[in-house]
Amino acid sequence: MSPPPLASAPIALPGCADAPVLRERGQREVFCGLTGIVWLHRKIQDAFFLVVGSRTCAHLLQSAAGVMIFAEPRFGTAIIEERDLAGMADCNEELDRVVDRLLERRPEIKLLFLVGSCPSEVIKLDLSRAAQRLSVKHAGTTKILNYSGSGIETTFAEGEDACLAALVPDLPATETANLLIVGALPDIVEDQFRRLFTELGIEAVDCLPARRAGEMPAMGPNTRYLLAQPFLGETARALEDRGATRIDALFPFGAEGTTAWLHAAATAFGIDELHFRRTVAAPRERAKRALEPLRERLYGKSVFFLPDSQLEVPLARFLATELGMIPVEVGTPYLHRRHLARELALLPSGTVISEGQDVDRQLDRVRAAKPDLTVCGLGLANPLEGEGLATKWAIELVFSPIHGFEQAGDLAELFARPLRRRDVLRL
Q1: Residue 169: CB partners within 8 Å, gap ≥ 6?
Q2: pLDDT at residue number 69
Q3: For the whole model, what pTM was predicted?
Q4: Known binding-site residue numbers for [4Fe-4S] cluster
Q5: What is the pLDDT, as a whole number, of residue 151?
Q6: CB contact at 8 A, 250 and 9
Q7: What distance in Å separates the CA atoms of residue 319 and residue 414, rounded to the nearest whole number?
Q8: 382 contacts: CB under 8 Å, gap ≥ 6
Q9: Fold adopted by 33-154
Q10: Distances in Å between the alpha carbon of 185 and those of 64, 181, 194, 404?
Q11: How far apart are CA 301 and CA 361, in angstroms?
């Protein structure tokens, strides 16, 4: 069956805005929040991430970030030994020595994050107080902050949320009206958005995080912010505590998602509607053209999202409204209904929405549904492939440039590729 032409606006669907949520509480299969360091240390160019944890955490980072082996990385691990865990040694003294040695060797570090890999009850160390003490000690050269990347307390993408939330209290204050794009985006995507906002006439645009520690944005009661990522709940709360106002919008995935995201900002800043349409017309049309051949392949195919990154709901909306895929179930580690209300309203009625994880029960539903594509973590992909189910690694959707008009075709291709591979293997 051939798909109908690509719609000029999100398809009107009964929606899942008020759909019941299946809450799962059981065994989880997700990376911990430490993984966010892998992209954050590339984004903030003069920051260093020092993980305070065990050798297991060191091995995780070494494996997950092994692609950085040819460049001197800006992350490391302060190992907590067994005697430290037992409270037999003064961890603060050892941490001070590690930090002093690190900053002496790497004076270019302007922002140092102490990242807890375990709750303070486990490592017997209050990293918040340690960061305050060390920040005073190294004042004038390096700012020292802390956040938790513990897999006990956070899921995969929430490490970025905790990191950005830690930055907010120290952002400079301003009364000037400005727009804040919140979420770590690849530089090329950030530059594209900045150009579009400039063309629209919104000049005071800042990004959190900035590319360098000394360029972090100012904010205040006249700041309006757009979330670029759906997993930034704590950061949003911290911004609002300082008086900023969230601009409610779809997330910028696909031609229509990006249009709606930009339009929400344009409306908030009083941009003329005709000027907005003229500004976005060309890049929007390029995005729609890029999606057409992939829509041919994906239309009518079913997709099942297992919970992983919190990107699941907006990505399911993109696949349903712009490519004609059928979401069977959309699972997410945490469902922020206020931030995702517009996304949920565009999901097809009857889509199962689940929050949290119970791996065995969810895998049973995958096997019963036999979707054309299952989006899941690395640990589940290989077993499902062995059972004959096509899978997409969810982690790739976090690492890849997928936001905005120019990346719309690349985003769709990430979902089309596993189906193409399956077809080739069947020949």
Answers
A1: 238, 242
A2: 44
A3: 0.90
A4: 32, 57, 118
A5: 64
A6: no
A7: 11
A8: none
A9: Rossmann fold (3.40.50)
A10: 19, 9, 12, 10
A11: 23
What is the 3-state composition of the chain as percent helix, strand, coil, each rounded to the nearest 5?
A: 50, 15, 35
Residue range 21-28+289-426 forms a domain whose CATH class is alpha beta
The letter for the amino acid at 344 is L
* Domain residue spans of the chain: 21-28+289-426, 33-154, 178-273
DSSP state of 24: E
How, if at all, do strands 391-393 and 205-208 pair?
Answer: unpaired
Annotated binding site: 32, 57, 118
Pair 385, 391: CB distance under 8 Å: yes
Positions of the chain with pLDDT under 70:
1-14, 28-31, 54-56, 58-60, 62-73, 79-90, 119-124, 151-154, 427
Alpha carbons 417 and 128: distance in angstroms, whole number: 44
| CA Rg value for the chain | 22
| pLDDT digit string, tens, across residues 300-357 | 999 999 998 899 999 999 999 999 999 999 999 999 999 999 999 999 999 999 999 8
Query: Residues 103-135: pLDDT tens digits?
Result: 999 999 999 999 987 755 556 678 899 999 999
Neighbours of 67 (CB within 10 A): 9
Residue type, 40: L
Strand order across the beta sheet in which 326-332 lies: 21-25, 352-357, 326-332, 302-305, 373-376, 391-393
Please answer whether residues 323 and 295 qualify as being in contact, where contact means their C-beta atoms are separated by less than 8 angstroms: yes
Pairwise CA distance, residues 75 & 50, whole Å: 6
What confidence score (pLDDT) does residue 251 get?
98
| Topology classification of domain 178-273 | Rossmann fold (3.40.50)
